[in-house]
Amino acid sequence: MRVMLAEDSTLLREGLVRLLAEEGHEVAAAVGDGDALLAAVAAAPPDVVVVDVRMPPTHTDEGLRAALEIRRRWPDVGVLVLSQYVEKRYAAELITADTAGVGYLLKDRVAQVDEFLDALDRIAAGGAAFDPEVVRRLLAQSAHADPLARLTPRERDVLDHMAQGHTNGSIAAHLHISQSAVEKHVNAIFDKLGLAGAAGYSRRVLAVLHYLRS
């Protein structure tokens, strides 16, 4: 796949370039700020961009704003956001915009090479990939919501994996239960959230958004 990187840490940026090249991916651009990333994408949109949240000049949200702009102008380009911390508002904004081809990982996850590459592949294929810690904190901030309190511990586990972008088959493998059991839990989650009759929408996405917005 064609990948573009935006990371102001030269060490991490060059490490990612080498890793992706060794995996057979084409790194079309590797830049140090959000404006340079937008210019590179405008010139020749890649399959996926990997972007840090905090970059020059203010080191606040330049990367995140660039990521959201890419999602708006080039919706077919996958976006994988990297952050040192769990930026709750930023992660929620990405998810509420559209979960197709979107991911949010903590930088520590990059050290887990297989997980990072798997996330990149899922995003390039139009899926989603969210760090478990990001999902845990986003769901925790809405733990006061009545619907969440109605979920069983296993249903919470299933919802956690749904929010990370896993399919039912993948959830079954991670939780060591049958796929039919996962399907029953998913349907129970939909029922408890009042989404059973949400025709015309992705109930999986609505289930996650319900918590992030509460």
From TrEMBL:
<feature type="modified residue" description="4-aspartylphosphate">
    <location>
        <position position="52"/>
    </location>
</feature>
<protein>
    <submittedName>
        <fullName>Response regulator</fullName>
    </submittedName>
</protein>
<keyword id="KW-0597">Phosphoprotein</keyword>
<dbReference type="Pfam" id="PF00072">
    <property type="entry name" value="Response_reg"/>
</dbReference>
<dbReference type="InterPro" id="IPR039420">
    <property type="entry name" value="WalR-like"/>
</dbReference>
<dbReference type="InterPro" id="IPR011006">
    <property type="entry name" value="CheY-like_superfamily"/>
</dbReference>
<dbReference type="InterPro" id="IPR000792">
    <property type="entry name" value="Tscrpt_reg_LuxR_C"/>
</dbReference>
<keyword id="KW-0805">Transcription regulation</keyword>
<keyword id="KW-0238">DNA-binding</keyword>
<feature type="domain" description="HTH luxR-type">
    <location>
        <begin position="144"/>
        <end position="214"/>
    </location>
</feature>
<feature type="domain" description="Response regulatory">
    <location>
        <begin position="2"/>
        <end position="122"/>
    </location>
</feature>
<keyword id="KW-0804">Transcription</keyword>
<dbReference type="Pfam" id="PF00196">
    <property type="entry name" value="GerE"/>
</dbReference>
<dbReference type="InterPro" id="IPR001789">
    <property type="entry name" value="Sig_transdc_resp-reg_receiver"/>
</dbReference>
